[in-house]
Amino acid sequence: MIDFENPNFIENPYPALAELRKQGRPVWHEPTKLFLAATYQDANAVLRNRSLGRIFKPKEPHETWDTFNWLHSDSLLDSEPPKHTRLRSLLVKAFNKNKIESLRPDVERLTQDLLDKIDIKLEQTGTFDVIGDFAEPLPVKVIAALLGFPDEDEHLLRPWSQAIVKMYEVNPSEQTQLEAQTASQEFADYVRHLMEERKQNPGTDLISDLAAVEEDGQKLNAQELIATCVLLLNAGHEASVNGFGNGFVALMQRDDQLQLLRNNPYELAATTVDEFIRFDAPLHLFERTATADVEIGGVTIKEGQKIASLLGSANRDETVFENPTEMDITRDPNPQIGFGAGIHFCIGAPLARMEMTTSLPALIEKYPNMKLAADPIRRPGFVLRGYESVIVSA
Ligand code: HEM
Questions:
Q1: Which atom of ligand 1 is nearest the CA belonging to 311?
Q2: Which pLDDT score is estimated for 272?
């Protein structure tokens, strides 16, 4: 039986996930009271089946968890149609491929700024942290700029977001729960204040657009707006940091792939980024609740029961991917489902891809001799799986 909290499993979950796939159907996991869908076919079917919804279960007691609860139940990610359709349609324009592509020069500039700072750090210490100095600040700055989050308060984003997402792991501790409550309150208050200000003095940012938006004559209510902004600020960097870090470490451990990318950093950027997400997924597990009896892979999931789609496992399915345990940065086609599937498919996928296809080749080109200078330090947790720090020399 998989133990999602076991550090050995978190270190390398893939052998256990391969065993799970051998069962060929969703398997009941008693400790979490979840069916686990581990094959590509089943994990994909879970995300696409409309009788399996993202149904947020509010935490009790209500008074303690009030803000955390509505930050979820009123956000895009945790709503289902028709509310989901209404919220998503308001964001589609801001995140479409062309709009995102137009931001590439800004991301190139940001990348250069970070590389200049890394130069100074290298001179001083001979090493830098790929996570703290590069993979993390880039998407944080990009999503903050897109939403119009003030530069001077950017440092607040990551701690708030980290405190909230730790709640998605199996069995969060008492301390984690307290921190999530405090962060939810502070984050929501901050965004509420910002939104009020943007209503008075609109800018060209997404928070101003959302504050002003009128859809079918019906405005977003304040809670939905705040919840969706908080979601975007969190989702807009958490997975990107870990997706970059996971792929980067795997690349550093494979001379042939590293050499290939060094020789063609820009040409291979797009296939490399998708292979990063496939090979070592930053997001592993998403739950759904059956709103009617439904069959997945020959197993009946009864109304009210829960099933998890295991994305990282699906992306290693040997019936879909040739040599799935090998990293191949030229893999094409690559039908990985690390960005999800169905109506909740990641709205930020074009942004994440644009950021990574800009920043990764620039990093590799600037420091072709990068090497891991210490064992990368893992952050705890399976659902959002990645590294705390990855120290390299260059
Ligand atoms: C490597 C980076 C990323 C990965 C692997 C990733 C992955 C995912 C996945 C798997 C989902 C679907 C969750 C589900 O079905 O329950 C999702 C949804 C979402 N993602 Fe991302 N994401 C990434 C980056 C981003 C970025 C940069 C943004 C910024 C806007 C973003 C915003 C969202 C939002 C708002 C949703 C909810 C969509 C909905 O419910 O309709 N993500 N993401």
A1: 10
A2: 98
